[in-house]
């Protein structure tokens, strides 16, 4: 059973107050909302996440936040409430529809959004968020790139060799490969909710990447998501 995490906080003291949000004007508008893991510097112990709410099809950024722990349902509720109450563009309003990535942690928020008249669809892809997040990372990488080691021509082909892994680490989660105390040699793929795939049979880097590529290719196929070649 998947741990749903902390419970949704509503009303006094919370950002998401249904009575307030329901009184806002509603626009025939679709939003995408999600949290994405940020690259972790070597000396940083915890993974940080960036949350974004964007409108379709224009990609206007309505709300943005960075947190220093795995996002909870209350982090998402706060992010959406800020997008409605004090959006970065336009005046306060609620959308008619919100697209969220499938995640059991969001379950208690779905009914709260329905209560304020917002339709929620759970999807496998959020193209506007993907684009904005990639641009955000590009700006971060530009700031960090001074003195960075450039891959060789052969090393640069790794994303073509392992397209499923490449797509996974760009926007769906991260992988772990190597010897772990008390577990031995492990290959894992994790998303923002936790473990997705684990294999303790590989004994080399090549075997591990092959196993992860096959497993993640199946995951994308099951989710109906096309792998970029």
TrEMBL record:
Residue ranges constituting the DUF6930 domain according to the UniProt record: 20-136
Pfam family, one: DUF6930
InterPro entries hit by this protein: DUF6930
Protein name: DUF6930 domain-containing protein
